[in-house]
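Why does residue order matter? Because the sequence determines the fold. Keep that principle in mind as you read this record.
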Amino acid sequence: MAETPNSTMAAPELAKPHSKTELFTTFSQMALKGFGGVLAVVQSDLVDRKRWMTQTQFVEEWSVAQIMPGPNVVNLCLMIGGRYFGVQGAMAALAGLICFPLLLVLGLAILFGGVSDSPYAQGALRGMGAVAAGLITATGLKLTNALPLNAMGLGACILFALMTFIGVGLLRLPLVWVLLGFGLLACGFAYYKLNQVALTNTKGPQS
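Structure:
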């Protein structure tokens, strides 16, 4: 029997958290592993290890989490927890994300207070900063694999990213105005492209 297009292009089935306890423990593990930035750990665990979302879904939801007020990882964990278990799930994911790191940071702050002026401590902090920057850069490059699937197309995504970098990194424009300007422009262009695809799909069977 010949294969249908739907059978050959079917997306892999995704898993999901079975309980609020699993949400709590998963985000606790990610938080404890995420020294210097949780982005690399979150992407690896949610997409590759847990398979709670695809790479494309992660890019889309991470983008939403970044433009919302507050820490982006906190926003993402609230979105994921709320999707599966409502408000209780969101609170369970948030508790897992902050409880153990909070205790760890308080303990380290007490210990670090006595050695903060040491050249060894300062060197360790600079070294960890370089490693964190490398992890974030590597994860950002990895996430570009999902850009060709974006409704705007790869070229438009690169153009908006470049304009945003120039606006914030080089021209030092306020982030809120860059988001409002380029963000609204990108949303309008994406809406136009999606509308064009919808019109094409609607007219296709009739032609």
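The chain has two domains: 15-110+126-146, 150-207.
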